[in-house]
Amino acid sequence: MFQSEDNSKLAAKNFDSQDQLKNFRERFHFPVHNGQPQLYFAGHSLGLMPKKASEYVNIELQSWAQYGVEGHFKGQNPWLPYHENITASFAKLVGAKDSEVVAMNTLTVNLHLMMVSFYKPKGERNKILIENNTFPSDKYAVDSQARFHGLDPQAVIVELKSDEDNGLSVSEQSIIETIKKLGSSLSLVMLGNCNYLSGQKFNFQKIVEAARAVGAKVGFNLAHGAGNLQMQLHDWDVDFSVWCSYKYLNSGPGGLAGAFVHEKHHLSKTLSRFEGWWGHSKDSRFQMGPQFEAIPTIEAWQLSNPPILQLASLRASMEIFDEAQISRLRKKGDHLTSYFQWLIEQNLKGVAEVITPTSRGSMLCLKLTKNPKLFMDQLIANGAIVDFREPNIIRATPAPLYNSYEDVFNLVQLMKEISNGQ
Ligand SMILES: Cc1ncc(COP(=O)(O)O)c(C=O)c1O
User: Fold this and answer.
1) Any atom of ligand 1 within 6 Å of the Cβ of 192
2) For site-directed labelling of 186, which of 74, 99, 120, 130 has its Cα 20 to 30 A away?
3) Which residue's CA is minimally distant from atom 7 of ligand 1?
4) Residue nearest to ligand 1 atom 5, measured at CA
5) Is 65 exposed, middle or buried (0-12, 13-18, 19+ CB in 10 A)?
6) pTM
7) pLDDT tens across 217-276, in order?
8) Which domain holds residue 385?
9) Is 138 close to ligand 1, i.e. is its CB under 6 Å away?
10) Distances 394 to 226, 307, 390 between C-alpha atoms, Å
11) pLDDT tens string 57-113
12) Which atom of ligand 1 is nearest to the CA of 111?
C-alpha cells in the first residue's frame, strides 16, 4: 500500500494536501507545548475541544442568566427538548432510527440500565459473555448485575480467551464457537467494541447472528466505537448499545453518554426497566401523576432532566460529525492508521510492535520492548500525548477528524529519536 518514498515528511504533507477532511482540524483547540500544537494522539481517551463548544455552552449560560427557570421554554434553544438536538446525529452515527437513540446519563449508568432490561437470568440461562481484558468498569458492572440477581459472578460471567499470537485478540471463529458452546446457558453477549486494550473490532453482525441462534440477547459497549466505527445497529438487530461521548465524540470531560435500544423492544410489556420522570410521556409529564406512562421510544429509559451545559458542548461536536460524516472519517481513518502502522514497521523495528489486529478502528496499541515508562516520559516531555497501560502498552490514535498525516510522521520520528537516545 505504501512505497519507500512515503517514509518522509514530504510524503506526509502530500497526503495531507489531498485529504478532503483536512480543514476539520481548524475547528478544534490543540493543547500547546513550547508554543507548538501538541502531537495529540489521545482521542480514544479524551477528544479535543471543538472551538464552538464554548460558544454553545455560553449561549445556555446566557439563557440561564436572562430567563432563569423560563429557559426551559424560552431563548434560542429551550432546554425542555434540548436533548432532541442530538438525536438525529446519534442515529446517523450508529445506524439507527431516531426513535432508537438518546443522549442521557453516563456510560456505566446506561450499561446498568440496559442490563436491567436485557439481562434476565432464568434457570440455566444465566450467563453473560464478555471480552478478555474487559474494561474494569464493565467487569464491575456485569459482576454486580449477577450478584443483584443472587448469582455468583464466578459461575455466570464467562470471558472470551485470546487465541491469537499477540495474547490479546480473539479470532471470530473462537467467539462464534464460544457462543455456540454456551448455547442455552447464554443469556447475554456484552462486548466492548473496539476492545479498549487491543483495539480489536468485533464483527457485530456475525455475533448477533450467533447469539440469536442460541436465544441470547446482544449489547455492545461502544465507548471505543462511537465516532470511530461505522455501524448499522438497527439492521444488525443489536438489542442495545451504550457509548460515552468524551472520546472520539469530543464532548468534553464527563460528557453525556448515548444509548440505543432496538425499536422492537420499545413497546414490550415483558421488559423490566428502571424509570424516572424524564421517560414519562411528554404530553402529560407535568401533570405530575403517580403512574408512569412510557414515551414509546428509547426516551422511556431516560430518568432525569439532562445537564444542558454538557449537551451544549456535545451539540457543537455532533454538528461537526454531521458535516464530516462517519463513512468519510472511517475511510480516511483506515488509511491514516495504516500509514501509522507502516511507519512504525519501517522506523521502529525492535522498539515497538503493533499488536492491534487489522480488524480495528483508528487506535493502535504498541508493545514497547525496552524501558516503556522512560519512553513514555520522554514522549510527554517532547510534546506528544499518547497513553500508557501497564506494563508496556502505548495506545495511540490518529483521529481522522483532527490529526494529520504530518502529525503521524512527526510522532514516529520522535519515537525513533527517543529510541536512538536510549
Ligand atoms: C470500554 C469502557 N467501558 C467503560 C468506561 C467507563 O465510562 P464512564 O466513566 O463514562 O462510565 C470506559 C471509559 O473509558 C471505557 O473505555
Assistant:
1) yes
2) 99
3) 107
4) 137
5) exposed
6) 0.97
7) 999 999 999 999 999 999 999 999 999 999 999 999 999 999 999 999 999 999 999 999
8) 4-30+325-421
9) yes
10) 21, 34, 9
11) 999 999 999 999 999 999 999 999 999 999 999 999 999 999 999 999 999 999 999
12) 11
